[in-house]
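Sequence, structure tokens reproduced for reference:
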Amino acid sequence: MEAHQLRYFVAVAQTGSFSRAAEQCHVSQPALSQQIQKLEQSLGHRLFHRLGKRAALSAAGRLLLQQAQQILTLLENAERQVKDFDQLAHGQLTVGAIPTIAPYVLPDVIQAYTRRFPQVELLIHEDLTAHLVDAVGTGELDLALAALPIHDGRLVCEALFTEPLLLALPRQHPLAARRRIALEDVRDERFILLDEMHCLGEQILAICRHEGCHRIGCRSSQLTTVQALIALGQGISLLPEMARAADNDWQIVYRPLAGGDYQRTVGVIRHRDRYHGAAAVQFLKLLRERSKRPKRG
């Protein structure tokens, strides 16, 4: 049993296909199939049921899968620890973030990090929560910023801070002078919401439905577009505090909501079993430091 055989085996188990696994492992399909057969011969059991173009784990394969993943994680961690000896001198760090957090949190952290560790190659990947969870789970990303809770046994989820969701209205709106506004007072208003593909959009839509705010006039995939439409008097919305802090246009007023504790928790996720080198540890330290600072605006 060799490490590359286990890698091929796990790839087939995860993709359900010899051809896709070969592509993922950057080898030819015949070469991958041959190594799987050698692994099966050495173990004395078939690991897959070949079902046309599909490959399904046998009982022996299911038994091996978890152990194989653990072995590969141990090997990867050993390699990373050795390479980590001088990682801050010439290492690499891959960080993910969802689009409703990335532009508000990452620039400040990245600037501070690159000043302290200019030799570390920092790669940023912005994507939706489900994709980031999968990327951290498979080791493609070292860390990722997302809204919590996230339920995945492979991950450690650490809360960084909680921010309120605010009612955003055009400055000329009749209710703009109030210090706090209840959602029941705006049930008949036209709402401009973030698209449901974002977890924040899904959360805000659920709040609107629960409170009887059913008049959805527009959905956008960008918070800045939602803000631009509100500034033009096209409707109102619920937006996170960090979007308010970054808004210098003064055409929108942001008011706390009365009668409910509407908020989201921003956190960082990382793999539970993977070794995290000095580059990741220092980035995490900066995230924690910046999260404790008073919010601007």
User: Anything to note?
Assistant: The longest strand covers residues 155-170. The first helix runs from residue 3 to 15.
